[in-house]
Amino acid sequence: MQSVEELEMDLLLEGVFRRFGHDFRGYRRPVLQRKLHAAMRQLGVKTVSGLLERVMHDGFAAQIVLRELSAHPAGLLDDAAYLRALREALVPLLRSCPAPRIWIAECLRAEDACVLSALLEEERLLDRTQIFATVGNESFLQEASSGRFALDRLARYAENYREGGGKADLREYCREEDGCAVFGDRLRGTITWAQYSLATNASFNEFQLIVCRYALTDFGTVLRHRALQLFYDSMPLNGVLSVDPDAGVEAAPFVSRYKAIMPEQGLYRRVA
């Protein structure tokens, strides 16, 4: 039998889906509980039912809850070892393709897309590569597409980028503006941003690289399978998939469809 809070969560998630079109119903319950409790603390609400009432009638509260449910704590520039592995796997593939396309799914941060632009610029691949960055939450989409991020992150990002194989100082790609770091037009101009839901939308193109880090671990089994199938349907043979190491690629049915390149970094090549 469901607890009262579990029932309240069902009602809130259904309300969010019907009211705003964002579908979190397939997320893992412990993840949802943690995120909803964080939103409750921010809003001073004691029950999930109270949170539902606020979400339905208070736009500010709704934005807090939607952002909390969509957020994940890390980005590509937080992991230097991953950046080095991605560069090693990606560059030979893109050099062999006349017009490569890259999809970064659930891209909540400007730096997660622009770091790939910087990598491609250094490898002389930027001018012929299309980058698509998508995210389900409108607020995160607006922030990320601006190219801005907190200035106090820049030094750490620059160090991680260097350790990850960067051939230039990441700070050369940025300028300071209104207390923020902002990526230059050259890197931002190659990125197409769009709102897109892994829970409800269909494949929209074919990509030589698909990156979806830190999001799939929040998904329940059914939703995670849907996302992995979506990525498979959006990738040609020899395309590279970059996900979390425990995303489920090494389980049926996907284990026969991919060959691990660097499984410790969640990098796989489609082989079937």
Summarize the structure in words.
With 272 residues, the protein is of the alpha/beta class. The protein folds into two domains: 4-70, no CATH class; 76-270, Rossmann fold. The chain contains ten helices and ten strands. The protein has helices spanning 4-20, 29-43, 48-57, 59-70, 80-95, 110-122, 138-145, 154-163, 185-188, 221-233; strands spanning 101-104, 130-135, 148-150, 174-177, 180-183, 191-195, 209-212, 240-243, 258-262, 267-270. The strands form two sheets. Strands 6-2-1-7-8-10-9 form a seven-stranded mixed sheet. It has a three-stranded antiparallel sheet with strand order 3-5-4. Helix 10 (221-233) links the parallel strand 7 and strand 8 (240-243). Helix 2 (29-43) packs antiparallel against helix 4 and helix 3 packs across helix 4 (59-70). The radius of gyration is 19 Å and the shape is globular. The mean pLDDT is 96.
Topology:
Layout: H1 4-20, H2 29-43, H3 48-57, H4 59-70, H5 80-95, E1 101-104, H6 110-122, E2 130-135, H7 138-145, E3 148-150, H8 154-163, E4 174-177, E5 180-183, H9 185-188, E6 191-195, E7 209-212, H10 221-233, E8 240-243, E9 258-262, E10 267-270
Parallel strand pairs: 1-2, 1-7, 2-6, 7-8
Antiparallel strand pairs: 3-5, 4-5, 8-10, 9-10
Features:
2 domains, 272 residues, 7-stranded mixed beta sheet, 10 strands, alpha/beta, 16% strand, Rossmann fold, single chain, 43% helix
